[in-house]
Design goal:
Distance between the termini of chain B: 35 Å
CATH class of one domain in chain A: Mainly Alpha
CATH superfamily of one domain in chain A: Cytochrome c-like domain
Shape of chain A: globular
Number of strands of chain A: 1
Strand content of chain A: under 5%
CATH architecture of the largest domain in chain B: 3-Layer(aba) Sandwich
Structural class of chain B: alpha+beta
Number of strands of chain B: 20
Number of helices of chain B: 16
Strand order of the largest sheet of chain B: 5-6-10-8-9
Oligomer: heterodimer
Structural class of chain A: mainly alpha
Radius of gyration of chain B: 24 Å
Order of helices and strands of chain A: HEHHHHH
CATH topology of the largest domain in chain B: Vanillyl-alcohol Oxidase, Chain A, domain 3
Shape of chain B: globular
Strand content of chain B: 15-25%
Helix content of chain A: 40-55%
Largest sheet of chain B: 5 strands, antiparallel
CATH architecture of one domain in chain A: Orthogonal Bundle
Number of helices of chain A: 6
CATH superfamily of the largest domain in chain B: FAD-linked oxidases, C-terminal domain
Number of domains of chain B: 4
CATH topology of one domain in chain A: Cytochrome Bc1 Complex, Chain D, domain 2
Radius of gyration of chain A: 26 Å
Distance between the termini of chain A: 94 Å
């Protein structure tokens, strides 16, 4: 009797069934960036957000930033090791390095950093230049 | 414009035109300067005629667009080469294995489809990077960790398919093993879902790996049988605490019991983080130390007497060197253990580990850091971030210019054989590789220690520099090829490699007259009869490009 009860319970569950829903996942698009935090950039100069997103993981301040370390070793203080404190970069130079790379810094594809983003990064890194 | 080999200019023009209709004109790249961005920045053939290059690139943003592109490629027999984020530098980057292929750039497929906190999994597209997934989880405030490799800009999908690894608990460190369910577009444009995903309306696609019948997921890794467009991963619930402790063993021969005890502790999950071997005497840093050294001036120079003993020692050993070590209280070996879990359990497990290692006469123990998780912002800056599931690019400081590396290279390639999990194997591999290094004019290290990314085996990871000098690169390539053969003669095989060596290494997996490779080829001919997908990847060539064995 006990077994029959169990059987009918199974049968009941079977008859009810689970509704099969169409797996229609859309998901959330994630804008490309190499940062661990979301950058709002409110009140910051144009291009700051793109610079934070694409460059700061290597060229930002603090420890463990290979780009900052490399420029410190290269210029030994003659130029700031932080790219965004430089006053001698030109937009062309910024674009050349992003699209050609240097040493272990690779070049970046347009699906990673678009031309429009790169324009903004160049604008940001040249904002302090003497005119 | 470069045209893929074996494709007529008119067919290629038609295919490109149809690619544009499928994905939009701006996402088909044919201009020379745009296509050049798909070169491998660390190519060992840098600037040589043999460098592997693309003819064009096409960047779909949805699985439907991938289907269209694949169907067009199949119709015109255009070779295509899918990449996810294209950042597996040292293992090929975004350049195709078959030069002249069109790169199928999946970077724009960047959706996080689902992250489930209760059951600790994620379902993502190939263009999502570790940084992206981490940020998504942080923004939603979910208590989940992603097992990340050192370079955080890679793709969980791409890294898993290339069988990369990370640093967290053992069951997450092997990124392919920690996946659960995939969606794949086949060469004819058809979509399959693996595991439970094969059932319409499946409720457990990311919860139960194997589904029903043959579990085919493995054939889509390190291969060219389909384009993976979605992949599920098991994530690590954020533990409450992290503890690390280091065991130090005084004598050369102690490496053997050290590894034996370590294996027991790891295989019984007493220690659940990645063990990290080092040698204070031979000045071989543990991974966590590399990161710290790179931030400063590197390791302090050895005392002159030690430096001279090290220079005279053979394979990291001499009786005098060992005596010096004992007299000066410098340990031969160190092994850092990591524990993730409740702080009390971590402490108890560390105490148990100490008990076991105490059977090595003279073993010493140091309690390292103990953190209550999540880390504070100050703590985050101190740690090797991947050991806490935080993506970073800090490890590039190994090759970048620094005070200790004033003349940086142009990249690197990795020679990475798998060897047994024993101290004896470490000694033997050192003897063999040092002899080979001397013979082929490579820098000879006193001793090398393997890494413990994978359970049950060791992996040696040797970096070969890629320079701007073609002759140096040629010499290094020749030495690399020799090392692969020498390793194979000893029964040690590479786990992964750059395109330049994939044929060579596949040919070392030659049991029973290459029966496994022939099986791969049978599959290839069946699922991709026109051979359009990633020709040559991991040594698997379509029929029309297969080199007949001499």
């Amino acid at each position: 009797m006990k077994h029959l009860g169990l059987l009918s319970a199974i049968a009941f569950a079977w008859l009810l069934g689970a509704p099969i829903s169409a797996a229609q996942e859309q998901g959330q698009r994630i804008p490309s960036s190499w940062t661990t935090t979301t950058v709002s950039g409110q009140g910051e100069p144009r291009g700051y957000v793109e610079y934070q997103k694409f460059c700061s993981a290597c060229h930002g301040p603090g420890t463990g930033r290979p780009g900052t370390m490399a420029l410190q070793a290269k210029y030994k203080g003659a130029e700031p090791a932080l790219l965004d404190q430089r006053t001698d970069l030109t937009p062309e130079l910024v674009k050349t390095y992003v699209r050609n790379g240097i040493s272990v810094m690779p070049f970046f594809r347009k699906t990673e950093i678009s031309d429009a983003d790169l324009d903004l990064i160049a604008l940001y890194l040249t904002r302090n230049n003497k005119r | 414009m470069k045209v893929p080999p074996g494709v007529s200019s008119s067919d290629f023009a038609k295919a490109l035109d149809e690619f544009e209709q499928a994905v939009g004109k701006q996402w088909v790249f044919t201009a020379e300067e745009d296509v050049a961005l798909y070169r491998d920045p660390y190519s060992p053939f840098l600037g040589e005629a043999d460098e592997l290059v693309a003819s064009a690139a096409v960047a779909p943003e949805s699985v439907e667009q991938v289907q269209k592109v694949v169907r067009i490629a199949n119709q015109y027999k255009v070779p295509i080469y899918p990449v996810s984020t294209g950042k597996n530098l040292g293992y090929g980057g975004s350049a195709p294995v078959f030069s002249g292929s069109v790169v199928l750039d999946l970077k724009r497929m960047n959706r996080v489809i689902e992250v489930n906190e209760e059951n600790a999994y994620a379902l993502v597209e190939p263009g999502v990077s570790y940084f992206d997934l981490y940020r998504y989880i942080q923004e939603k405030g979910l208590k989940l960790w992603v097992d990340v490799p050192d370079p955080g800009w890679g793709s969980p999908v791409g890294n898993a398919l290339d069988r990369g690894g990370g640093y967290l608990m053992a069951q997450f460190r092997n990124h392919f093993d920690s996946h659960c369910g995939m969606e794949v577009v086949l060469a004819n444009g058809e979509i399959i879902r693996t595991g439970m995903g094969a059932m319409p309306g499946a409720k457990t696609w990311q919860n139960y790996k194997s589904g029903f019948g043959p579990w085919v997921d493995g054939i889509f890794s390190q291969s060219n049988f389909g384009v993976v467009t979605k992949m599920g991963f098991w994530l690590m619930p954020e533990p409450e605490g992290y503890l690390s402790g280091t065991v130090y063993a005084p004598k050369h021969a102690d490496l053997i019991p050290l590894v034996r005890i370590l294996n027991y502790l790891e295989n019984t999950r007493v220690t659940n983080g990645m063990p990290d071997l080092g040698s204070p005497l031979l000045r071989i840093p543990m991974i966590a130390e590399i990161d710290v050294w790179n931030r400063g001036d590197g390791p302090p120079p050895p005392e002159p007497e030690l430096a001279s003993l090290l220079a005279k020692s053979e394979g990291g050993y001499s009786a005098e060197l060992e005596r010096y070590a004992v007299d000066h209280g410098i340990s031969y070996w160190s092994c850092k253990l990591s524990f993730y879990g409740p702080p009390k359990a971590n402490q108890a497990n560390w105490e148990f580990a100490k008990e076991k290692f105490s059977t090595i006469p003279g073993a010493k123990f140091v309690d390292n850091e103990s953190y209550k998780l999540p880390l504070t912002p100050e703590e985050r800056e101190k740690v090797h971030k991947p050991q806490f599931g935080i993506p970073s690019l800090a490890m590039f400081s190994i090759g970048a210019r620094s005070r200790t590396n004033p003349d940086p290279t142009n990249g690197h390639m990795w020679f990475s054989p798998i060897i047994p999990r024993t101290g004896e194997a470490i000694f033997e591999a050192n003897r063999v590789f040092n002899q080979a290094a001397k013979k082929y004019g490579l820098p000879v290290l006193a001793f090398s220690l393997p890494s413990c990314y994978w359970e049950r085996s060791f992996i040696f990871i040797f970096a070969f520099p890629v320079t701007r000098d073609k002759e140096t690169n040629q010499k290094n390539r020749a030495a690399f090829r020799q090392l692969v053969q020498i390793a194979a003669e000893h029964g040690w095989g590479e786990y992964r490699t750059a395109p330049a060596y994939q044929d060579l290494i596949m040919n070392t997996y030659s049991y029973n007259n290459h029966a496994l490779l022939r099986f791969h080829e049978t599959l290839k001919d069946t699922v991709d009869p026109n051979g359009i997908l990633s020709a040559g990847r991991y040594g698997i060539w379509p029929k029309h490009l297969r080199k007949t064995e001499a």
